[in-house]
Design goal:
Length: 247
């Protein structure tokens, strides 16, 4: 069941989303060779708490940190730890916050220092595939239009979209209906309505789309070891298009 949000609920979600966006921006400024992923996580958690919000990921199904930090061939759900960032890596940071019971969720992939042209293209294409998906999120459109727009943009650049993980509705829970695949027919899925709030999140691989879970039980990696990127926004559906809450 897809839960429709009132304008008042969406304004609470906008506050959550704003703190998510501010945290991601602050993290982006601090990502550099030599910083450890647990230091990044601590910066994020401190900022989220300072804004009167709670980190949504910490304790979620037992996840031990406030952010997911995934490097190179890690797609999503990387656990912060003692690893130091190294020039040439791409680093995906995914985070959520709770404000007055409402969730916001966003992710971005950042370059560490100078990266290869192939990795730069992967980041740009993944960001543009999110924008393409968001541009189809409007009342009256089928949800499949979002999924299809993401897939077409990513695959036409020679990349693949992860099939095993999806975007999601969001509200008083981090994961609500509907599921939002990053591939599929524009004719599929429910018709979007004003008041739906969606976390759209393409995960795009440089190589094959297949992924697997590492022995830590959390980290998702590409099977072929090629790099992967992830961008996500939480958006509210309106008659005129998507209202991005995580900016
Ligand atoms: Mg997320
Ligand atoms: Mg999400």
């Amino acid at each position: 069941m897809i839960i429709i949000k009132t304008d008042a609920q969406i304004s609470l979600m906008r506050k959550a989303g704003k703190v998510v966006a501010e945290t991601l921006r602050m993290i982006g400024e601090n990502l550099k060779p030599g910083i450890t992923t647990s230091e990044i996580d601590r910066l994020a958690e401190e900022y989220i708490l300072s804004q009167g919000c709670q980190p949504a990921f910490k304790g979620y199904h037992g996840f031990p940190a406030s952010t997911c930090i995934s490097i190179d061939d890690e797609v999503v759900h990387g656990i912060p730890g003692k690893r130091m960032l190294v020039e040439g890596q791409i680093v995906s940071v995914d985070l959520g916050v709770i404000y007055n019971g409402y969730y916001g969720d966003s992710a971005a992939t950042f370059p560490i220092g100078k990266i290869s042209p192939e990795k730069m293209k992967l980041l740009e294409v993944t960001r543009r595939s999110l924008e393409a998906g968001i541009s189809e999120a409007r009342a009256g459109n089928k949800l499949g239009k979002v999924s299809n727009a993401v897939q077409i943009l990513a695959e036409s650049a020679g990349f693949s979209v992860v099939r095993d993980l999806v975007g999601h509705g969001i509200g008083r829970a981090m994961h609500e209906d509907p599921q939002i695949p990053n591939y599929g027919s524009p004719e599929e899925g429910p018709v979007m309505e004003k008041g739906m709030v969606l976390a759209i999140e393409p995960m795009v691989n440089m190589g094959d789309y297949k992924v697997q879970t590492k022995a830590d039980g959390w980290t998702i990696v590409t099977v072929d070891g090629a790099p992967s990127a992830h961008f996500e926004h939480t958006v509210a559906v309106t008659e005129n298009g998507a209202d991005i809450l995580t900016i």
